[in-house]
Amino acid sequence: MTTSPSPADEPLQTLQAASDLLRALASPVRIGIVRELSGGGKYVHELVTALGVSQPLVSQHLRVLRTSRIVTARRQARETQYSLTDNHVAHIVLDAIRHAQE
């Protein structure tokens, strides 16, 4: 039988990294962006349409997510496509959304 490590066994650095991740997600717009990107890469105008918020607001939140290394940006011609760095964050967000709907 495998047991989870006790909180005392977790290095403080790991707990700080988890706290930083949750802080970066602590916005309805950022949660919406991660939800939209869970289906694959999107351009800013697609996120604006899906979320129903302004382009400057989406760009501001994408900057926070990029700084936190939750999303990556890839320039394609005159537009930038945003994608999740990995799907672990999508699972956290989608589980939180499902939990809130219960």
User: Can you write the helix and strand succession as a string?
Assistant: HHEHHEEH
The mean pLDDT is 91
The helix count comes to: 5
Radius of gyration: 15 Å
Percentage of residues assigned to helices: 55-70%
How would you describe this structure to a colleague?
By secondary structure, the chain is an alpha+beta fold. The chain has helices at residues 12-24, 28-37, 44-51, 55-67, 88-101; strands at residues 42-43, 71-76, 79-84. A three-stranded antiparallel β-sheet has the order 1-3-2. Helix 2 (28-37) crosses helix 5. It is globular, with a radius of gyration of 15 Å. The two termini are 31 Å apart.
Give a summary of the structure in a few sentences.
With 102 residues, the chain is α+β, with helices and mostly antiparallel strands. 57% of the residues lie in helices and 14% in strands.
Protein traits:
102 residues, alpha+beta, 3-stranded antiparallel β-sheet, 14% strand
Question: What is the topological layout?
Answer:
Layout (H helix, E strand, L loop, with lengths): L11 H13 L3 H10 L4 E2 H8 L3 H13 L3 E6 L2 E6 L3 H14 L1
Antiparallel strand pairs: 1-3, 2-3
Helix pairs in contact: 2-5
